[in-house]
């Protein structure tokens, strides 16, 4: 013990005495616990880092997909604009050439055969306009429709001029009186329906379409309404603010517009260009047309024949099925309309509120076959 420093004596006591061994063991335990905590912290940090790393590629992949979709949309839009520009130039040149040919035939028509040739070319002109509705501007479409209406009127006038005149004959007063009471009467239409057929449209509604070719019904409830081919031929039809009505349109209208209508049944012959629905609900329709657009409409069943693609926007509960309505003169009206009866995209619908390509839109569906048995009459 003599000659040793106090530090050595303390160190010896720490190593040799039982108290020193206990102190060392406690130090070792504390060190092991620290190491364990550090290792656990490292493992936790590694797991969080791995989880973050697993999420980062998913987010990046989703962003990349969205970016590619946007690039594809812009590319498609640019291509569509270029195609529409080219198609518009082609349409303008072809329409002008065919219109001039029809006008020349009508001016020089001295026989029924020449008139039939003019009628055939006019039908081809109508089909050209129908096929061009998708890319034409509204102004160009309206100009084309008005030109066709003028040509059709000129054709009808020339037909009347070439018809052989009837021989003069005396008629009894009774027959004259009877015939005068039946002017403008459509066969098979009850008097109640006849009184409703020509209910005038409000001036504002007529002004909206801006044409003397407008006809239709408005502000009626629980009525049966009808118009015949002579009243509808190549005219714009407007049906607005109807409730619980049945509307039958026999013939070939130029356009059809149905707005603010509830719980109605509409049956319409072939429409040369477009059918437009807006703010309708709980309706059943049978329409054939070149283009169908439906806006802000719900719970409506549509039996249709459409040569392009139907469009829905801000709609819900819309159901589609093939066009099944028929009447005696429908073949003639289809021929006059220029619609291709062999082409029907009734189940090919674009929803402007649903852009996902891998999932069906919840806003429209196919009407099941067992629910398509509709009594039209």
TrEMBL record:
Pfam families: TBCC, TBCC_N. One of its GO terms (molecular function) is GTPase activity. Tubulin-folding protein; involved in the final step of the tubulin folding pathway. InterPro entries: C-CAP_CF_C-like (IPR017901), CAP/MinC_C (IPR016098), CARP_motif (IPR006599), TBCC (IPR027684), TBCC_N (IPR031925), TBCC_N_sf (IPR038397), Tubulin-bd_cofactor_C_dom (IPR012945). One of its GO terms (cellular component) is cytosol. Supercomplex made of cofactors A to E. Cofactors A and D function by capturing and stabilizing tubulin in a quasi-native conformation. Cofactor E binds to the cofactor D-tubulin complex; interaction with cofactor C then causes the release of tubulin polypeptides that are committed to the native state. Gene3D superfamilies: 2.160.20.70, Tubulin Binding Cofactor C, N-terminal domain. The keyword S-adenosyl-L-methionine does not apply. Residues 202-354 form the C-CAP/cofactor C-like domain. This is Tubulin-specific chaperone C. GO terms for biological process: post-chaperonin tubulin folding pathway; tubulin complex assembly. The keyword Chaperone applies. Transmembrane segments: none annotated. It is found in: Cytoplasm. It comes from Rhinopithecus bieti (Black snub-nosed monkey). Signal peptide: none annotated.
